[in-house]
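Q: Structure tokens for this one, please.
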Amino acid sequence: MTQALILTSFAVYLLIMLYVGYYYSRQKTANSDEFYLGGRQLGSFVAAMSAEASDMSSWLLMGIPGLAYITGLADPFWTVLGLGIGTYMNWLMVTCRLRRYTIRVGAVTIPEFYSKRFRDSRNILMCISAVIILIFFVPYTASGFKAVGTLLHSLFGFPYHESMLVGAFIIVAYTVMGGFMAVSMTDLIQSIVMTLALIFIVVFALDIAGGIRMVIYNAEQLPGYLSLTETHADGGAEPYGWLSIVSMMAWGLGYFGMPHILLRFMAIKDERHIPMSRRIATVWVVISMLVAIALGLIGYSAACLGSIPLFESTSAAESTIIELSRVMASHGAFAALVAGVVLAGILACTMSTADSQLLTAASSFSDNILQDVLHVKVSARTSMTVARLTIVAAPSSTWWLLPGRASVRPSVP
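A: Here is the predicted structure, written as tokens:
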């Protein structure tokens, strides 16, 4: 019964994703420019939330809590601070300039922007940047499909490869049907699901962990666990110097070069929306990641009280949210439905990244390499067909990259 209720939450979430794709497939899309950039019609809230959701992946709900669970505050805190600053500075320094210039020269992809920005008449920069996107984004997309299969196999015992194919089908389906607008709206919904997942699981976990005082007491028993200048390792406290701090904060520099985020900057409807988008994006990123850190600390306290297993490595501790959700699901039908929402949040993290990277990789091939570099001339209608076929073809080209193609089945996500 419990599994059926969790599965119901998953099914409703996935059906909503498909409906969004179907809804935007009914909107008139005249050419691949509108398909890949949505006619530059994103509002401030959608632009902000979809941009940040497309970046997070399952690291938000699994990676950060797992890191905090094992090492304490220092590592995740300085990482979150760097990502928060990087988010704000990216929106502040890049958005207006990128949007204005791409509108002026008619660029709809990042490779095309580079080519026109530096007056590269031979499209060498376009080719290099498009190839780089394909090389790194297509395998990354494949890892997202793998994560979906692993999650469904771990939770419900479904066959791994079949689960992966179902996840890939749904992501590809709504991306093919609705293009950029479908991806942006599903990413918005996925960001809301992630937020609800964090709220629900932290409130529940705090209760079974003995409350705030017990969480702090258990954390204080580990040397360096609550310090920002020390980290807990090998049963003791190790100094956390300025080089470590700078290294962890440097994660925020990555935001300035993420094509799937930059595309949201280019697609904002009105320049006057940018300041509001910047505030929304920064606040959501910082708060959601700080809550994720708290989840790791609370999870450790719950483990000390025997509510969930006691993990000894970061990779194992990444399943903290899954173990807490399983405990939640045992508290009745309503709790099982809420646990389903929490676990769907993990799925949302993965899908919000995979769909954006899939669309970005497809645009690099169909628009930049095929038409601009190889000079294959096609009509607007044929261009739309090529764009959709590229999205369908990209996942199948990565099958050989996925581990576990034999009979091996993973046991945990």
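A few notes: The longest strand covers residues 230-233. Residues 404-413 have pLDDT under 50 and may be disordered.
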